[in-house]
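In the previous chapter we treated chains in isolation. Here, by contrast, the input contains four separate entities that must be folded as one system, with a combined length of 294 residues.
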Amino acid sequence: MVDLKRQSELREAIELLYFAYRAFTARADHILEHHGLGRAHHRILYFVGRHPDMAIHTLLDTLKISKQALNAPLRRLVAEGLVSVETATHDHRTKLLRLTKTGHALESQLTTSQTEQLAEVFSKVGRDAEKDWRQVMARLADSTKTL
Amino acid sequence: MVDLKRQSELREAIELLYFAYRAFTARADHILEHHGLGRAHHRILYFVGRHPDMAIHTLLDTLKISKQALNAPLRRLVAEGLVSVETATHDHRTKLLRLTKTGHALESQLTTSQTEQLAEVFSKVGRDAEKDWRQVMARLADSTKTL
DNA sequence: GTAAATAGGTCAATAATGTTGACATATAAA
DNA sequence: TTTATATGTCAACATTATTGACCTATTTAC
């Protein structure tokens, strides 16, 4: 009886993850649509924005996708002038990625829409609940390694 | 200065969602691979398992995809004997979906792998943190409607 | 100095997942 | 009887991903 209740709670947690994540990505997806871009482009913009002068292999390690999968969306972002590529001075094999002014503008719009959404939720639940949420999410993110 | 720090924290929260969700789906994806199935099949199995005798339009409303997108994966699950379809007695237009014994076995395996992952995290952070996590996720899931 | 490792680019074939449009049937409700 | 609902399916297309193959540079190791 007790165990059944717990199982139901854990199932609810599964659904919370599914629906929360969907709600979280919806706004950015909507903005991206206006630019004819997808989530792949968003992830590139986000991580390059977060870590300027990121090398391509670092981006691949972060996203955990093949270089072939990265190729098309990155090439497009470069072609459209949202991302700039520069050869590293220390190692002429590696190329460093940066957001251009236009790229930064879009990244900022996307990130702001998501941070605002999160800030609104956090402001309602308070700082302690936010901390607890972060703790759970961090452990969950880490649980890949325990696989 | 204060605002900059907060912005950094909110960006961290974005990443927590991304990495936690990825870690969360990884195990199920791994199991599904052995059966040659994908996430689309998983979602069908999950929700039909959660709500036996679910009508197809209810499933479509839940997943928020087109009937054409549902068609192929559902047809396959039925063909492989994981999901059964039955015409409703009260309305002969609607069809009710159920997991077969085999379907239930797979769904159970998938759900158990995820509930165990969540239970492990929850056990480490304690019940209060779990409650806070649920509160944040529920509000985040709700924030679709505020769009 | 040559071989091997690293960083990156690109083509092809294939797959999963999604979309919109079009058109079909069967049943229920107005 | 008309209309709305529930479902099914075909086609064309887009996005995101995979593996395999093959290519050029550049750096590092022996």
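Chain B is about 75% helix and 10% strand. The two ends of chain B are 30 Å apart (CA to CA). Compare these points with the single-chain example from earlier in the chapter.
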